[in-house]
Amino acid sequence: MIQEVLHFFGRAICHQLEERSLHASGETLSVCARDTGIYIGIFSTLAYLHLFKRKKKITIPSIKMSFFLLLFMVPMAVDGLGSYAHLFESTNLRRLVSGTSFGFVLPYFLYPLLSAKALENESEPVIGDLKDFFVPVVLCYGLGGLVYWGKISYFVLDGLIILTVIVWFSMCWSFLFSRIQDIRFKSALSAFCGIAFLSVLSLLHSLIIP
Q: Which residues fall in a coiled-coil region (predicted)?
């Protein structure tokens, strides 16, 4: 039952080709190796920012740092385009690493914007020192290594990935409800819309690709 639910939400964002997916405890993960990397990266940076930055006035990274972060997105773009264009054959390890590099960057630009304080003049860039960059990097690649070598059980890993997917899409929906002042209601509404949106995508995927 739990596995079916996890695969249902994984289908919303992923083709779920078994040969392009990693395994844990003998089971195929609900998303491919590249998406596994992306959401491990997102989880790592989100967890760090929420633990250490949620009470501070922060905004998106500086222009110089933003360009530096965008470089980490290049490997996945090259690997993905080259693979789909049949220029070369990718591997699950390469998909995992490039996906992780892409994913850990995204929260630096989205998370600060969840707060209205991001627009205040006294708000500081979300990356203030080396720790704000290196801790998420070490965490995401450390998790990636544990995933690749099968050191995390299926339900823990797949549950973490799908939970991160739901949280990420809920965060994206929350921007549509920025005028709502009640934080609890706003969070509940965003979560409902995120889950509903993913459910629709999954059902559409099932209809298009049985």
A: none
* β-strand partners of 23: 28
* Distance, CA of 142 to CA of 162 (rounded, Å): 19
pLDDT score recorded for residue 155? 94
Which stretches of the chain are DSSP H helices? 2-10, 33-52, 63-70, 74-84, 92-103, 106-110, 131-148, 154-174, 183-208
CA–CA separation, 5 and 27 (whole Å):
14
Whose structure tokens read 């890993």? 157
pLDDT tens by residue, 110-153: 999 887 666 667 789 999 999 999 999 999 999 999 999 989 99
Cβ-Cβ contacts under 8 Å for 88 (sequence gap 6 or more): 82
- Residue 81: both structure tokens together: 């385009």
User: At what angle are helices 154-174 and 183-208 packed, to 10 degrees?
Assistant: 110
